[in-house]
Amino acid sequence: MGLRLKFNLVLIAVFAIGIACSGWISRRILQQNAKDEVVRNAELMMSSAQAVRAYTVGQIKPQLELQLMRVFLPQSVPAYAATEVFNNLRKTYPDFAYKEATLNPTNPRDKAVEWEQDVVNNFRNNADLKLQRGERDVPGGGRSLYIALPMKISDEKCLVCHSTVDAAPKTMIAQYGPANGFGWKHNEIIGAQIVSVPMDVPLKNADAAFQTFVLSLGAVFLLAFVVLNITLSVMVIRPIVQMSRAADEVSTGNMQIPEFAVTSKDEIGVLASSFNRLRRSLEKAMKLLE
Question: In the predicted model, is pLDDT for residue 122 greater than 90?
Fold first, then answer.
């Protein structure tokens, strides 16, 4: 096995281990960054929903108090306002979703589906639980991350519309009917605010960045492999081969070969100087014997 082959095998092993380790670490970092981006988007959507609810309660509803005495306006309900805002958002970003999933809603569109019911019941069964976060597969939409906050009746004013059918505004009953949205109790968790954000696009972007990184690293390795082999050949292999051939000639008594030109002070240059001295010493010894 030649010196070049040994060197290349070691070099390939080192670069293979380096690419494998850096690839594994970089992929984990890129995937984690992508997931963190999804979480930030979900948290931003949830904060936006909270802001819309607060704006509706603080600035819209007080302006409609006189009108609300005569007719029920769903636009004055914080949950309705937040849902409508994000329904408009979904026209541009259809994979993003916001829902105030409720077990017994007034508006049928807020009815919690099976997986949302599990989220709500988890809040109901764990009073200290303030936030839920998870991942789920969306039929036809890939992987999605969701963040959920509990919806609790902390303001008794809400019970005016949701305690009994008799206490509820007649115009609300006329719009939604008397079958649902009643029997709520103070401090009861009746649903959950749920934000869903798609994960596929950020994860695909992370995979694309990882592939670009690995290809770039492979190109750098290939360039380094070629440059190192050329350097090894010019600075090490070629001088050693020349000295080996010269040593063979000297060993057979051929003293007519010229001395090596010492052009550097590195190890190869020192070896060439030592060989030249050995050759001269051997030549003098041969003359003395003659």
Answer: yes
Residue-range domains of the chain with CATH? 3-17+207-289 (1.10.8.500), 38-199 (no CATH)
> Cα 80 to the chain's mean position, in Å?
33
Give the Cα separation of 266 and 234 in Å (integer): 14
The partner residues of 191 in beta bridges, in order of sequence, read: 102, 151
Contact 192, 151 (CB under 8 A): yes
**CA 243 – CA 32 distance, rounded (Å):** 56
Which of 109, 101, 103, 120 has its CA nearest to residue 74? 109
- For the CA atoms of 175, 179, 182, 188, the dihedral, rounded to the nearest 10 degrees, stands at -120
Do the Cβ atoms of 148 and 194 come closer than 8 Å?
yes
Burial (0-12, 13-18, 19+ Cβ within 10 Å), 77: buried
Tell me which of 32 and 67 has the higher pLDDT. 32
Q: How many residues does the chain have?
A: 290
Tokens 């750098």 locate to: 220
pTM: 0.70
CA 55/CA 49 separation, integer angstroms = 10
